[in-house]
Specification:
With 165 residues, this protein is mainly alpha-helical. It is built from eight helices and three strands, in the order αααβααβαβαα. Strand 2, helix 6 and strand 3 form a beta-alpha-beta unit.
Length: 165
Amino acid sequence: DFVHERLGRKHDIILNSSLADSTIEHLLKDVEWRILRFQPDVVLLMPSAAECAKRGADDEFRETLQQLTDRLHEEGCTVVLNTPPCPANANHSVTKTMKTAASRIRAVASQTGAVLADHFSHWQATVQHDRANANLHDDSGQQPSARGHRELARRLLKSLNIRSS
């Protein structure tokens, strides 16, 4: 709605080709079908928190993300890399691996010229500033709450230099 109504881009089409439990590696292997057949101008990529927690410290994670980003750039796409927010109450090991993954996503963005929406750092700062009132996660602590989704959208728009108000 924001793109169509507030920005007046009524002819833009927004497609979500994500799949549950999909990884950057899956996306790279299936990039033609999942992304390129639509000839997009802009592609937003956000590795899941689960993928980052599980594989974020692996060199292969960074290499695969870089290959996918390079491939999309070769096809003329503007790529927006998003760091995922850290789940609430994540243990130290998960948080450490996710910090490494976020660092690698930032590095790929820097190396490839992709736009970066750094949700991880923003959420970490928000929670550190006022943990009791952050309310960024739903009751499960794994998914963003309504406020969390608004924060994700605001950070994305800010990263794209689009004013939301």
